[in-house]
Specification:
The protein is mainly α. It contains four helices and two strands. The protein has helices at 8-12, 29-36, 52-81, 86-108; strands at residues 19-22, 25-27. The chain has a two-stranded antiparallel sheet. β1 and β2 (25-27) form a beta hairpin.
């Protein structure tokens, strides 16, 4: 693939003609690529769990991590500006809850969840207590003068 300067999937399923992902099954090349990437099941294949759902969970996991980073950046900006922080705090909490559920589901399927950013490592705490909330950097506050 590197020598031909094409993605490896193009060698398996060229876009120039129909694909045969299974013997006797002819489909459009893009449908074959989506199946290969775990984005779709083969329409003509027996409907069973072929791992597609688990791959979707991995994509959703990445989406939630990106969403968490977005909420966190907005929360820090709101704090620095003295603005409303509750919507961003709620977004962080909901995203962390969703990540915890996704990671648990991955483990139930004997899959290894992706590595979390350090600031999100708390979602993996296995405890009956609520996970600790990561410390956000403090907003610069004016220096208070102490007693002299």
């Amino acid at each position: 693939a590197a020598a031909l300067e094409v993605p490896p999937v193009r060698l398996v399923f060229p876009l120039e003609h129909t694909a045969e992902p299974l013997p006797g099954v002819q489909i459009e090349p893009w449908a074959a690529i989506e199946w290969f990437n775990g984005q779709q099941q083969l329409v003509s294949a027996p409907q069973r769990d072929d791992g597609t759902q688990l791959l979707k969970r991995y994509r959703e996991h990445q989406h939630q991590v990106d969403q968490w980073r977005n909420f966190r950046a907005r929360l820090l900006s709101a704090r620095a500006a003295g603005g409303e922080v509750e919507p961003w705090e709620n977004g962080l909490h909901q995203t962390e809850t969703w990540l915890t559920m996704l990671r648990s589901e991955m483990r139930q399927h004997n899959a290894v969840p992706p590595r979390l950013p350090q600031d999100l490592a708390h979602v993996d705490f296995a405890s009956t207590d609520p996970p600790p909330t990561p410390a956000l950097p403090p907003v610069d506050e004016p220096q208070k003068e102490g007693p002299s």
